[in-house]
Design goal:
By secondary structure, the protein is an alpha/beta fold. Helix content is 35%, strand content 19%. Bound molecules: NADPH dihydro-nicotinamide-adenine-dinucleotide phosphate.
Length: 276
C-alpha cells in the first residue's frame, strides 16, 4: 500500500523536501509519495487531525510550526524535548503522534562528511534561534567548547544556560568580531542574515585560516559571510548538507534502517535553484 508523507509550514512552496524524499523512494523502489501543505496558524490543530485521518504515515514540520505543533502530539523523543521543537512527526501503529527533531543531528552528520569533531574543539555559534539551539544540543556529546554570539545578548545567555544545564561547556561573547576570531576551529553562522544577501555587521578579517566556517543557509548558495570566509582562506560549507541529513534522519525515524542518502541527494540537487 502506498504510504503518504508531507511537509507542513508557511510558506512552504520553496520546500525542497518533496524532491529529496521522492529521490529516496526512487532509489529503493518504495511505494510512497511526499506532498507539501501550506497551513494557516489557526488551522494547525485541524491540519494535524486531518493528516492523521487521511492516513499519512508522517510529516515534516517547518517554520513557523516547529514549536506550535508540540501541544498536538502525544509523545516527544529526547531530541525534540531537548530542542523544544519538532521537525518530524511519525504516526505510530497505534495512532499516537510522535514528535522528533533531526535538525541538530543532521547538521552534525553533514559536518562529519567533511571533518572530525574533536573533543575540546573551539566552536563559535553566531545566532541563538531555533537552529542554533538544535546544533548546540547535538554538539554537546562531542565535548566541544561553545561560544555563542547573538544580536540580542539575552537570547545568547539563555542558550548558554541551556547548554550548561545539559552538561555542555559554553560562554557568551559580545556580538562583534573579537578574540574568538583567531582561536575558533569551527564557526557556525545560524542567523537568517544571509537569506537576503545582507552583509554581516562585522568583518572576519583576522580569522584563523584553518577554521571551518559553516553557514546553514544554502540559498544563496554562498552567502556574503561564507564568501568572505573563503576569500580569507577558510574551509567553508553551506547548509545543503544539513538539509539532506535532517531529511535522511527523518526517513530513518519513519522507515527504520538506513536512508537512501544517494537517491535523496540526487533528488535534492535536481530541484535546487542555484547550485553555485
Ligand atoms: P530563528 O528565528 O529561531 O532565529 C533567527 C536568528 O537570526 C536569531 O539568532 C536572530 O537574532 C538572528 N537574526 C535575525 N535577523 C537578524 C539581523 N538582521 N541581524 C542579526 N541577527 C539576526 O530562526 P532559525 O534559527 O529557525 O533559522 C535561522 C536560519 O537557519 C534561517 O535562515 C533558516 O532558513 C536556516 N535553517 C537552515 C536549515 C538547514 O537545513 N540548512 C535548518 C533550519 C534553519 P535575535 O535573537 O537577535 O533576533
Amino acid at each position: 500500500m502506498e504510504k503518504h508523507f508531507a511537509v507542513i509550514g508557511n510558506p512552504v512552496a520553496h520546500s525542497l523536501s518533496p524532491a529529496m524524499h521522492r529521490g529516496g523512494y526512487r532509489e529503493l523502489g518504495v511505494e510512497a509519495d511526499y506532498l507539501r501543505f501550506q497551513i494557516e496558524s489557526g488551522d494547525l490543530s485541524q491540519a494535524v487531525q486531518g493528516l492523521k485521518a487521511l492516513g499519512f504515515s508522517g510529516w515534516n514540520v517547518t517554520v513557523p510550526f516547529k514549536e506550535q505543533i508540540i501541544p498536538f502530539l502525544d509523545e516527544l523523543t529526547p531530541e525534540a524535548l531537548q530542542a523544544g521543537a519538532v521537525n518530524t512527526v511519525k504516526v505510530a501503529e497505534d495512532g499516537r503522534l510522535l514528535g522528533h527533531n533531526t535538525d541538530g543531528n543532521g547538521f552534525v552528520r553533514s559536518l562529519q562528511d567533511e571533518m572530525k569533531i574533536e573533543k575540546g574543539m573551539e566552536v563559535v555559534i553566531l545566532g541563538a534561534g531555533g537552529a542554533a539551539k538544535g546544533i548546540a544540543m547535538a554538539l554537546i556529546p562531542y565535548d566541544v567548547k561553545i561560544t555563542v554570539l547573538n544580536r540580542t545578548p539575552e537570547r545568547a545567555q539563555q542558550l548558554v544556560d541551556l547548554i550548561k544545564s545539559q552538561g555542555g561547556d559554553a560562554v557568551v561573547k559580545p556580538w562583534e568580531a573579537g578574540d574568538w576570531l583567531n582561536s575558533a576551529q569551527l564557526l557556525v553562522q545560524t542567523t537568517s542574515l544571509g537569506l537576503k544577501q545582507e552583509q554581516y555587521p562585522f568583518s572576519l578579517r583576522g580569522i584563523f585560516p584553518e577554521t571551518w566556517v559553516v553557514d546553514i543557509i544554502f540559498n544563496p548558495w554562498e552567502t556574503p559571510f561564507l564568501r568572505e570566509a573563503r576569500e580569507l582562506g577558510c574551509r567553508t560549507l553551506n547548509g545543503v548538507g544539513m538539509l539532506l541529513y535532517q531529511g535522511a534522519l527523518a526517513w530513518e525515524f519513519w522507515f527504520g534502517g538506513q536512508a537512501p542518502v544517494a537517491g535523496m541527494k540526487k533528488g535534492l540537487f535536481e530541484a535546487l535553484p542555484n547550485k553555485e
